[in-house]
Amino acid sequence: xxxxxxxxxxxxxxxxxxxxxxxxxxxxxxxxxxxxxxxxxxxxxxxxxxxxxxxxxxxxxxxxxxxxxxxxxxxxxxxxxxxxxxxxxxxxxxxxxxxxxxxxxxxxxxxxxxxxxxxxxxxxxxxxxxxxxxxxxxxxxxxxxxxxxxxxxxxxxxxxxxxxxxxxxxxxxxxxxxxxxxxxxxxxxxxxxxxxxxxxxxxxxxxxxxxxxxxxxxxxxxxxxxxxxxxxxxxxxxxxxxxxxxxxxxxxxxxxxxxxxxxxxxxxxxxxxxxxxxxxxxxxxxxxxxxxxxxxxxxxxxxxxxxxxxxxxxxxxxxxxxxxxxxxxxxxxxxxxxxxxxxxxxxxxxxxxxxxxxxxxxxxxxxxxxxxxxxxxxxxxxxxxxxxxxxxxxxxxxxxxxxxxxxxxxxxxxxxxxxxxxxxxxxxxxxxxxxxxxxxxxxxxxxxxxxxxxxxxxxxxxxxxxxxxxxxxxxxxxxxxxxxxxxxxxxxxxxxxxxxxxxxxxxxxxxxxxxxxxxxxxxxxxxxxxxxxxxxxxxxxxxxxxxxxxxxxxxx
Amino acid sequence: xxxxxxxxxxxxxxxxxxxxxxxxxxxxxxxxxxxxxxxxxxxxxxxxxxxxxxxxxxxxxxxxxxxxxxxxxxxxxxxxxxxxxxxxxxxxxxxxxxxxxxxxxxxxxxxxxxxxxxxxxxxxxxxxxxxxxxxxxxxxxxxxxxxxxxxxxxxxxxxxxxxxxxxxxxxxxxxxxxxxxxxxxxxxxxxxxxxxxxxxxxxxxxxxxxxxxxxxxxxxxxxxxxxxxxxxxxxxxxxxxxxxxxxxxxxxxxxxxxxxxxxxxxxxxxxxxxxxxxxxxxxxxxxxxxxxxxxxxxxxxxxxxxxxxxxxxxxxxxxxxxxxxxxxxxxxxxxxxxxxx
Amino acid sequence: xxxxxxxxxxxxxxxxxxxxxxxxxxxxxxxxxxxxxxxxxxxxxxxxxxxxxxxxxxxxxxxxxxxxxxxxxxxxxxxxxxxxxxxxxxxxxxxxx
Amino acid sequence: xxxxxxxxxxxxxxxxxxxxxxxxxxxxxxxxxxxxxxxxxxxxxxxxxxxxxxxxxxxxxxxxxxxxxxxxxxxxxxxxxxxxxxxxxxxxxxxxxxxxxxxxxxxxxxxxxxxxxxxxxxxxxxxxxxxxxxxxxxxxxxxxxxxxxxxxxxxxxxxxxxxxxxxxxxxxxxxxxxxxxxxxxxxxxxxxxxxxxxxxxxxxxxxxxxxxxxxxxx
Lengths: 556, 341, 97, 218
Ligand code: HEA
Ligand code: HEA
Ligand code: CUA
Ligand SMILES: [Cu+2]
Known about the structure:
Chain A is mostly helical and 556 residues long.
């Protein structure tokens, strides 16, 4: 027998720098994003470790206040805009949305590449700021501190975030159009995987909220450059207007930071419970509802900021409404397990971790939306704990879950399962040790963004720091074994999880440059776990071989 | 000073080396803030209610996840047939029931918030607070001033009138469960009634720059007579109103605001609390913000029947001076005929 | 081809209407109608913008996706305005119209 | 085409046919315009708040703008929108030369607009009404008046940036059209340029009354 023809896939389809930097293949762009945001995650994580180390003592023992303030500002800015917002959408969304809808690529591949470049430029600005000495406004850029009083690189930072905003917008446009116009035959809206729904809802937010952030940062830039007082009370401006505009973006943005994770969890839970997701339509509509209602609640960040009492009541009420679709999702995931056939593989552990921690984080959001309680806990560590539970406990868990789940698809390799399970457990334990004490600290009254704090808060801070170091180890592990698996991992095969979905059933691992040898025709609901997985048609295998031969010939 | 021992930079030492540290240090290990004001307990009840509900729901979900993971583990035999429950009904149930719970929380919390926002009236002790990078200045009615620390009597409503000299700060006493952002060029208010004697932390809760976390002090709650004695012991050269009176003539206010002055300007006697008719037809109560605006933004609210000629004093008078002027104007009670006092 | 090709006649008519509306809005601004000046100016602007959108931009012949997207931009802007103003109005900052 | 799967001219490899491509481009452009609505929306929001807050001072300040210049510019822009719409029509019909001609006219009108705007800016500079650069106003309510000019320059400035981009794109499209790159089946770029141009026009339709007319009548 002849040796099997060399299998062509998106990874070995050209090796030079050009073939990566000028690629319009959504899968390669996803890899570019993966590398970039991993870098930023490490940077942001480094700052987090700096914060935690400093807070071991109630006094400034490691760094000066100037430095501390720069650390948490850069930590927040990098983690939010350069890691978490792009995380799942640009890596897994980019990789999977076209495959899941059965398309060869995004609707606008060049725009997709442009979005990565724009992101990289914004990122360079931020790295430049870090090297020059940082920014000390917090990630919220409150005026008039940021516009007039701060002596740090506010303008450069704002430019970086502004530029990155366009990357978000480009990605958003691409997702929406792709889902609308690029679906394969038979892929109706209600057969779309929930991950696609979630990314679609995310894209709506990206597209509708980001421009407001852009203009707000632009106004801050104008204030700093020309001293005109759009938000400066000394010049007739109103700082609360800044807060309104900022949160009009940033509250929806927190849903940018959770919806894709919810989409991932829907996939993982269905696959590892081997069951159709419970209440598919409700979960799909819940994504849209979150995207829509998410725009109505921003004022809950301003309850004590000097907003009117009436405004406080309205925004509190609306915040409770937006919590309902999240509740629906949590209950549906849980119900999906019922009568399932559950495998506790690594991605599933991350998914279950997500559900638990997101529920805690979300429910503490209910505390914050409760006006009188928020008066006490706002701007304390209670807030810090709330959002880390959702963003780290929720979204980063989902991100890790996605990474493990689709790693075989993206690279064609399997990672060592035992180590992965171990790291999932370490992350879970470390996470809770880091952030649970912060709820207690917060209710006791420790203000956030504080390098100095009264000594009676110390023991809880020490616990938190201890947890953070465990967490760090937990994050370090996957780095190592995933890299290892690239060289040594076992071959994954097209569908190692016995999952359903076009990307598993009709594409190789790693997929062909154009994803599918021929456009798949979808004849099923999503998550048809009650039916056997579809096999790639023989014609597909044939077409693949022909292509391989053709490419081989071209290369020689 | 024990500050030097703790830190190498003088500024930090200065900020942190005060009695507050010592006072705080002997609190030992705590899990929960003290309930030292009239609202603290009410807020805590709501908090406990939330903890209670969320624990039930959270533990319920966790147990369900664990139970299903074991019961339906793929290695175990189990019924894996279709589910015979009405999906729509159950979806509605788990949308509507949480919503109902949420509404209970909303109404309760909203009601309490409403209560917190109703400022006590006449009987309250009014204390001015000015935030600036990075310290608090408080002015008691008699004109006594203190920096970073705040002395208040127990059992009496205290209304804080807050403003900022520069950026946004936030006035926060965790043990009282009150917090209010403090904005430049604007007054915000917060009230509390202390119910426990002792020393409590006072923080700045809104990030305001380098020494944000050093911007804090202690609230000392004392018996009313003790408070009076404390006040008397620090009686300043002149009260706040006295300072205002001096400013009133220094700044030339008196050149217009007296009967028979060259410029026709309203007399300020009995102004405070009165209804003032403005030239655009509105009627407005002459309260603190109004008088403040009259001084800093005279063109904003022009009194009916007068020319809008009063110059703005923005940038000329500082926040504490504005307060002194207001305090002085408040004392102009008698229907005097000539120049005030 | 589902694309709609519009007769130049219609473009010219729309253009004439736009010019007329421009004249109207300048004319109205010369009369003192109090608050109604604002109502008039904004209404006319909205009509003009709609004409451009519907005819020049072919929204009238567009798919409902296009309508949805265009509508979303406007609705979201209104959300921002309404909720923000609800705070300002209740704070009493905005008193004079 | 990398894999030679299709040979229709102008058809990009990710699409199955030109119709899908056209619909995608069109939808993408509309979404982009929705983001633009919210981008301008942020400034409009600020305008609304301060305008309601400082009505009197803003009313006064507005009277100092050169209203006729704004009116002429409105006419110029509306006309350019007409020529743009006609240009798109020609490209729909495959009349590339006519399309290119009309695009040039559109571009010319855009440049006229910019010149008038430049003249106005220059005037404001002479008078000393440019906050942050040369602001010499000495009447009542300096802060509020300054804020009006801040918004005047922000709004018209951001609009002008869009105009500059628009003029460049239109020029490029004229060139491509002249080179015969488009056909009745494939002219999405021209259509998108048209959408963008009309959108910028619409922004001006609102800016004109908000900035220039609100000072009238006294
Ligand atoms: C991914 C990010 C994310 C997400 C999804 C959320 C989700 C929510 N957040 Fe959070 N939030 C942040 C990130 C996020 N938040 C950040 C970063 C900040 C701080 C910003 C800063 O100041 O720096 C913040 C701050 C913040 C505040 C302001 C606090 C303050 O500064 O004073 C408030 C107030 O209402 C709030 C509320 C909520 C609510 C009600 C939800 C809801 O959407 C949650 C809904 C979910 C659930 C409720 C859980 C599941 C539900 C059930 C299982 C139902 C059953 C429960 C019951 C019946 C009780 N958040
Ligand atoms: C969005 C995502 C996100 C993520 C993922 C995190 C992750 C973490 N955050 Fe972050 N945090 C924010 C968003 C996020 N945070 C925001 C928005 C703020 C508010 C900022 C502000 O106030 O303006 C904040 C603020 C904040 C504070 C409060 C600071 C203050 O108010 O004074 C603290 C304190 O403990 C903290 C801790 C942590 C910790 C311990 C982690 C851990 O999860 C981090 C774990 C990661 C690591 C430990 C790194 C792993 C990498 C390695 C191990 C590789 C090692 C590196 C090399 C080899 C080069 N964060
Ligand atoms: Cu003042 Cu923080
Ligand atoms: Cu929020």
